[in-house]
Amino acid sequence: MTVRNGEMRSVAVVGAGVVGLSTAWHLQERGIEVTVFDEAGPAAGSSWGNAGWITPALSTPLPEPAVLAYGLRQLLRPSSPVYVPPSAVLDPGLAGFLARFARNSTSRRWRTAMDALVRINRHALEAFDKMVRDDEAMAGCLHEADPFIVGYTDPAQTQSLVDEARQITDAGQPVQVDELPIDEARRRAPMLSPEVRATLLLRGQRYLHPPKFVAALADAVTVRGGEVRGGVRIEVVRDRGRRAAVVGKAAGGAGVAAGDSVDFEADAVVLADGAELNTMASRFGVRAQVRAGRGYSFSVPVERTPPGPLYFPVSRVACTPLGDRLRVAGMMEFRRHDAPMDPRRIAAVVDSVRPLLTGVDLDDRRDEWVGSRPCTADGLPLIGATGSQRVFVAGGHGMWGMTLGPATGMLLAEAIDTGRTPEDIAAFDPLR
Ligand SMILES: Cc1cc2nc3c(=O)[nH]c(=O)nc-3n(C[C@H](O)[C@H](O)[C@H](O)COP(=O)(O)OP(=O)(O)OC[C@H]3O[C@@H](n4cnc5c(N)ncnc54)[C@H](O)[C@@H]3O)c2cc1C
Predict the structure, then answer these.
(1) Of 10, 78, 130, 260, which sits 20 to 30 A from 251 (CA to CA)?
(2) Strands, DSSP E only, in 225-365?
(3) What is the per-residue pLDDT across 275-323, written as a single tens digit (0 to 9) for each?
(4) Which of 280, 290, 292, 124 is nearest to 208 (CA)?
(5) Cα 154 to chain center, whole Å?
(6) Residue 289 in 3-state DSSP?
(7) Does the CB atom of residue 52 touch ligand 1 within 6 A?
(8) 245: which residues sit within 8 A by CB, 6+ positions away?
(9) Where are the domains of the chain?
(10) Topology classification of domain 65-104+147-203+292-375
(11) Which residues contact 36 (CB under 8 A, 6 or more apart)?
């Protein structure tokens, strides 16, 4: 069946992370009624403990020759920032995913994927601006950060980011990276230890407080007349011809008993269920795999909060000021999204930043967290219609779902409302 312009008047969204809620918000902009379901509540998944960087300048495809070479060198070392546990060989799905990832890690494929990402990255800040313009709560969680400070123990290490910035700029996405004398860096961010001997500035980017921002976004969707229903696990999506339905079970609370079944119909369904995207999308022809590149984070007290995020590329650790604490995030671990937290990974992140920071109590950790970067083997998200014109998917943004969630929602809402896929998300066809 063909869906006509303006025919979709109601949409059910599965997943109250940044992607699902942004999609709901932008659908509301078009006058479409939304109901968002989440098995827990807003920001229960990856959208909670991430680094909160809104950095479209750095949003690039993960598969690339340097990442592959680095990954192969580090892969089986438990303390390395990229880790695949030996037990992963028993998971044929993961082995196949990593093989496809490796095949995509060529300069030529990186460039093709980058051309596609440039088009959505251009909308990233505009889509945030629309959402925060009249919303003090959301605006209060989103900060301009001029600049991000990037730190190295050896001045020779800075060249790699300078080269990467040039390569990304050549691909049509301007990145401004400038030298920063180390004394000036220490004046701005006194927590840089004497071990940090060289620094760069990354300009023109933003950061946010992830749990607060996503909670404010959920509130905005509700205030604008939508419903966000936590405690409902959706198990099946059905295309019933003239309507689509989400079917699942309630975990209890707000007038529903645990185990009560839920069967909710709307004109369309959007699957934005993060690392679990394939479970329900596969029956609608989505074959591209989403796999968890798990990351870890925690927060620690700081004597003096830095003016913006700090980045240590060699240990692949991001530090973001969240109120009076510093969130420290890092690690890329390919393993089942629901495997328990591995405390050795937290220890590895702590060990890697301890020599780089001073006036930061790394032993007073709170909110230790593990979450999934929903990664695809070609480094591109999945956004658009599936084999059913009533069932859409939005996910697989890997390292950059916070940055691209609002742009994804804005462009997908246009596709759902008009029945036409905007050119700028055409390359993210979920049926590729
Ligand atoms: C350590 C780390 C640091 C990161 N740093 C950054 C960063 O600085 N900048 C950036 O742009 N990105 C960053 N990311 C990536 C970013 O966090 C993710 O790409 C993004 O949060 C994905 O959002 P999502 O809405 O797709 O998924 P999620 O936030 O995981 O949301 C999916 C939701 O679906 C729900 N759900 C799943 N299955 C069901 C079901 N069957 N029924 C009902 N509900 C269901 C879950 O409860 C969850 O709330 C980072 C990730 C990690 C791990």
Answers:
(1) 10
(2) 227-229, 232-239, 244-250, 261-266, 268-271, 291-301, 310-312, 317-322, 325-334
(3) 999 999 999 999 999 999 999 999 999 999 999 999 999 999 999 999 8
(4) 124
(5) 30
(6) coil
(7) yes
(8) 12, 237, 238, 263, 264, 265, 266, 269
(9) 1-60+105-142+207-290+377-432, 65-104+147-203+292-375
(10) D-Amino Acid Oxidase; Chain A, domain 2 (3.30.9)
(11) 12, 13, 14, 15, 16, 20, 21, 24, 218, 221, 226, 227, 228, 229
- 374 CB under 6 A from ligand 1? yes
Q: 1-60+105-142+207-290+377-432: what fold?
A: FAD/NAD(P)-binding domain (3.50.50)
Q: Which two tokens stand for residue 82?
A: 């990229």
Residues of the chain with pLDDT under 50: none
Ligand 1 binding pocket includes 209 (Cβ within 6 Å): no
Cα 18 to averaged position of ligand 1 atoms, centre (Å) = 7
Assess whether the previous peptide bond of 147 is cis (omega < 30° from 0). Answer: yes
Does 399 contact ligand 1 (Cβ within 6 A)? yes
**Residue 46 Cα, ligand 1 centroid: separation in angstroms?**
3
Which residue's CA is the nearest one to ligand 1's atom 16?
401
Answer whether 286's CB lies under 8 Å from 429's CB. no
CA of 274 to the centre of ligand 1 (A): 5
Cβ of 395 less than 6 Å from ligand 1: yes
**DSSP helix/strand/coil, 219:** helix
What residue has token string 């028993």? 90
24 lines ligand 1 (CB under 6 A): no
3-state secondary structure of 286: coil
Q: Cβ distance 71 to 397 under 8 Å?
A: no
Pairwise CA distance, residues 59 & 398, whole Å: 10
Residue 125, Cβ density class (10 Å: 0-12 exposed, 13-18 middle, ≥19 buried): middle
Q: Which two tokens stand for residue 421?
A: 């896929």
Place of tokens 């609608």: 284
**By the 8 A CB rule, do 406 and 127 touch?**
yes
Pairing verdict, β 205-208 and 53-54 = antiparallel
Alpha-carbon gap, residue 305 to 137, rounded angstroms: 22
